[in-house]
Amino acid sequence: MRTLIFLGEIVWQLDRAPASPGVSMGRRIVGGHRKHGVGGMTAPDLMMAVALAAAALELGANGLYLRHVCLGHTVPTRMTWLIWTPLAWMGVMASIEAGATLTVIKLVMSATGTTAIMLLALRYGSGGLSRSDQACLGITVAGVCLWQALDDPVLGIVFFLIADAAGAVPSLRDAWHAPRKERVLPWLLGLFSCLLALSVVELDRWGQGWAGFGIWVIPFYLALVNGSMVLLLCRPDRPAVAAVPAS
After folding, report:
1. At what angle do helices 43-71 and 4-16 cross, to 10 degrees?
2. Quick check: helix, strand or coil at residue 39?
3. Does the first or last residue of the chain, that is N or C, have fewer Cβ atoms within 10 Å of its Cβ?
4. What is the pLDDT of residues 192-208, one digit of tens each?
């Protein structure tokens, strides 16, 4: 889930793309001709449509996850959402400082959904006090400090992802030991949302080395997290009873 973190950046780039006289925002002129996509849509229009479809899937995944928690069908892992919530709001603040406009709306939506899940996790979740949870929290704090301290944007992204991945570890651990404490559909919707997000990355970005790394690495990482959760929750040898690991 949490694909809106990346989708906001795509929409921001499209929103800030320079428009030629007489051409509406979201359209580009390439060599004096509009670059069309499917059904008469321009390529940026098509990218925007795909990004919005991915955002809809992401919102659906968050809403479904919240519903499952309220119904008692899902027992969220506290430490994961305790780590992901401040990271989501830090992303909002970083975008505001960078001068983002349309991005902020989507990032706030994502951060709000993450916060809502975190609040429910405090009441209905499991874990948070184990040594492994505390170790993940320590890795996150160290990663965030290095992310904020470094001027290198590539290394900054690497340490941000390390911090975020430390938050994913408790949920992945619980999905291995107690896969029936989570429902797979929200994570599956999140995976589809990530794959759609990856589809709007321009092909030349994949061959630009470190210059393109910052464009595709976040949705790729999120796809790995969501995909790993789907595989763990659907594995054929999962226990028949949802036994929540001890804190």
Report:
1. 150
2. coil
3. C
4. 988 887 887 777 777 77
| Residue tagged 């960078």 (tokens) | 98
Host H or E run for residue 17: none
Residue that the structure tokens 């990346």 belong to: 6
Q: Is the entire prediction scored with pTM above 0.85?
A: no
**Which DSSP state fits 77?**
B
Enumerate the H helices of 72-101 as residue ranges: 78-97
Q: Which amino acid is at 118?
A: M
State the sign of the Cα–Cα–Cα–Cα dihedral 169, 225, 244, 176.
negative
**Strand-strand pairing, 33-34 and 29-30:** antiparallel
Rounded Cα distance between 74 and 69, Å, is 5
Conformation bin of residue 130: beta by default, left when phi > 0, alpha when psi is -120 to 50: beta
Give CA angle at 150 (226, 152), nearest 5°: 80
pLDDT tens, position by position, 18-77: 444 443 333 332 333 344 445 556 766 777 787 778 778 888 888 999 999 999 999 999
